[in-house]
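Teaching assistant's notes for section 4

Start the section by putting this record on the projector. Ask students to predict, before seeing the second block, whether 3-oxoacyl-acp synthase, kasii will look compact or extended. Collect guesses on the board.
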Amino acid sequence: MISDIAAGQISIKYGLKGPNYATTSACATSSHALADAFFLIQRGSADIIVTGGSEAAITQMSIGGFNAARAISTWNDRPTEASRPFDKDRNGFVMGEGGGVLILEELENAKARGAKIYAEMIGAGLTGDAFHVTAPPPEGEGAFRSMREALRDGEIKPEQVDYINAHGTSTPLNDENETAAIKNLFGDHAYKMAISSTKSMTGHLLGAAGAVEAVVTVLAIKNSFVPPTINLDEPDPLCDLDYTPKVGKERNIEYAISNTFGFGGHNASLLFKKFSG
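Reveal the predicted structure now:
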């Protein structure tokens, strides 16, 4: 199946005649789709865009490939505990399947038609590692830059961010380096923010991860509730931030970032803001 067919079928069904294409950037795919939609609306190429992603990759071939890359958890005797981002005993991700779709719309257009607005998307940062196919660079340098660019794009300061939906794959390299990137960018404020990895509950949705986690981030803002990182029994000493272990918590969230980083060195950070009317 060619990767653009879902976009094509949605366009045909609903008569959507604006920009119509698919992105491909591994685990950052649907975050890149959201960023593209955001930029297209910003420049006036469309007023409303249906954007997101889906993935159904639980097949022998994909599991075999990720297993050969030593990316998958080996907690086979305790599968419900296998996805454990930031835990000292994590050893790989758990594959999941799913999809998420958002309607991005120019704000004044949405207000004029009385649309229900969940949040505002105000920035996106896209970077490349130029380092290794499956490993992030030291200190998460690419992740650092993608978050920094999202903040610049949205014209806010690091200390204004209340929540980060982390990429948090439960692999040793990602979680350590994403934590380092957050600390390097946010400084002392890194210890005051709420962070969580919802992959602890959904598994890694690969190309759909960005869209689903963007939905989670938007709902976290709207509902003033931070979802938890389950299975975080004993944090890795190198992962010493507030990852919202075990249980979610109520918290006002004005600004939030959703991170997705893909094999191949593709990084995307999306910045959302509470809608104030």
